[in-house]
Amino acid sequence: MAAGGGMADEPSRVGLVPFKIHADRDLTFLQEGILEMLTSRLSWENKVVVVSREDTNEAIKDLPMPLNEETARTIGARLQASHVLFGSLTMFGSSVSLDGKMVDVYQRRPTLTFFKQSDEIDKVIPQVNLFASEIQEKVFGRPVAVPQPVAPTPETPDIFAHPEKLLGQEPGDQAAVSDDKPAPAGVGGFVESGVQAPPAMVSPELWKSQNFNTVIKGIALGDVDGDRKTEVVFISDRRIYVHRHERQYLSKIWEEDGKRNQRFIGVDVADVNGNGRSEIFVTSIKGTGERLDSFVLEWNGDDFVRVSDDNPWYYRVINVPDLGPVLLGQKRRMDQLFADGVYQLTWRDGEYGPEERLALPEGINIFGFALGDVMNNGEQMIAAFDGGDHICLFSLSGEERWKSDERYGGNMNYLAFSSSSADDMVDRLYLPQRIFISDLDNDGKNEVIVCSNEGPLGRLFARFRQFKSGHVASLSWNNLKLTLNRRTAESSGYISDFAIGDFDHDGGDEVVTAHVGKQGTALTSAGSSIIAYETPERSSSAH
Length: 543
Description:
The protein is mainly β. It contains 7 helices and 35 strands.
């Protein structure tokens, strides 16, 4: 009682114990997200302080699990906290339930209990928000306006179906085109802005590969074996795939695992050494992620061999006006994920070495920018993603000319680094997606081409992400801003990377996406596929 009375005029201290997870999959992102949200919602200047996670972890490390009210009060005494919040999250099938208890350490008020249940994991976060509001109001006397639930919208055509459903095929079925009825103009390819994208179907504008039981991390297109045909090069965490579109099927040319302790984060293709065969540039992280271990593969007539290995570079190939594909490189430092300076790399004296340093705006790294005449006025500009996935346009001198209100991109690919706040915490820097500046519809004007991944959880948490659907968008400058002119239909899952090129050897370019339908768990396999869309001009001319 003395301790409780002495703290009366001080801010209330709350200890948040990580919720116990009961599920058949890894829901660490949700456990972390719940803690982050409750920390932010419960904190109240000069009124409520949430005890640091480090102190809480120290207080619970020798206590038996699961917790009960008695052990929660023990934790509160150790933390000199007035309240302790603990609970559990249980997932069974698609249903998710949250159980929680807010314990008054000094027993001035009964323990506040709550139970929330939802039929989808995406609906858990709003429930946590409502619970935080309830605690603020009932425990700490802070009035909070709780938004009323939104009435469900009428059912609409399922344009968010998995690509297997969009195409009306079973996994592995490579039937090319349905003859049942003609596809409406733009279906499966790019639909003009203002026209709702109908459900995609098997059509000349869309093609989908067989399923791969892995998470595809990156994709690139190019002639890597000198046969004058485009190969599709893609990567998972530790495996490199070289395939080719043949007879409506994605045929395996070559596959191989990387070295032990390598984790791949990017792949690019370009003929930098000028011998008529494009090299494959793989950006790789070694071990715990503190060192780059990138390498270059080239076809020698019999096999793909490493012509450059153990390189301290992030690689990226971009198209530069009047130059074509250019290889770029950026290094990292022990104390910094990206060292200052992005350089053009060229082949000389048997190795890839830095030449000219690019003048890039502050905060822009090697991933997620493009060069080109965005405004179609003859001025070369830089289009780049900022840290919040907004598209920014810069002059070559670095002056910001425009920034989007909307978010685009959205990547699950990341670099891990130690948190500055705690030695045992690992933070993530999510890499920006690619941007292309291209005359996609061949009307003489450039567009900005980006993918866009979306979802209720999306970018809500700093360390963890989850996207529910993705599409590719074509944006044009209208003298004031970039506006959407065309986009593909949504597909469930997310787009991990995309490329533009003559994927099917028909003389015209396609937009080719690496689509992740499911990430997999310890008990279930992952699932990815390659989806190709005809460009707007060619898809409309087919009709």
